[in-house]
Amino acid sequence: MNYNQYLQKLLFEANRQELLDISNRGQNLFTPKSIKYAGISPKSKTIYFKTGKYLQKIRLSEYRQISRLRGDYDEKLELAVNDEIKVYCSCPDFLYSGQQYMAWNLDYGIHKEMRPPDIRNPKLDGSICKHLYYLLNNIDTYIPKIAKDFYDSRVDRKIRKKKIKFNSVDPNLKF
Ligand SMILES: [Zn+2]
């Protein structure tokens, strides 16, 4: 990595703490009664949550690298949530106050948005909505459950691989 690449890495991409630090949506704006963990996509390393009718996604950009390290699933997940992440929320605030635009253009977004919030947030303040703020601030409480799902998905894959091997045995073979 040269200096420019390093600088770019600092300017673009974001980790959990950076997103929390530049957020202007405090936790006091939100009572997390209805926030529910809704599972993972083991392939894209994305964690899903539901809050009422809104969907939140947190993608762990470095999980693939981190999963090769030694350690248990909880420890690896802890590292991954504090490393580079990408986020999305389907609430109106995330879209209309320009968070989705900033996220996409600063490389912490999951879904593309190219329309700048010229009227509602011309100075591009903030980073994430109250739902994501709450989640990133309290992600530790969800780690055991999420880690178990990553573990289970890995076990499932091993079983599938074994099945494929078994199925690929020549059916004409006589035992
Ligand atoms: Zn939201």
Can you tell me about this structure?
By secondary structure, the protein is an alpha+beta fold. It has one domain (30-165). It is 43% helix and 14% strand. The protein has helices at residues 3-11, 16-22, 63-66, 73-82, 92-96, 99-105, 130-137, 143-167; strands at 35-41, 46-51, 54-60, 85-89. Strands 1-2-3-4 form a four-stranded antiparallel beta sheet. A hairpin with a 4-residue loop joins strand 1 (35-41) and strand 2 (46-51). Helix 4 packs across helix 8. It starts with a helix and ends in an 8-residue tail after the last helix. Zinc ion is lined by residues 54, 89, 91, 93-94, 129, 131-132.
- Rg is 19 Å
Mean pLDDT, to the nearest integer, reads 87
Q: Tell me the helix content.
A: 40-55%
* Number of separate structural domains: 1
Report the order of strands and helices: HHEEEHHEHHHH
The count of β-strands is 4
**End-to-end Cα distance:** 57 Å
Shape assignment: globular
Based on the structure, what is the oligomeric state of the protein chains? single chain
Q: Structural class of the helices, strands and pairings?
A: alpha+beta
Strand content: 5-15%
Task: Describe the strand arrangement of the main beta sheet, using strand numbers.
Answer: 1-2-3-4
What are the segments in which pLDDT stays under 50 over at least 5 consecutive residues? none
Small-molecule components bound: zinc ion
Largest sheet: 4 strands, antiparallel
The helix tally amounts to 8
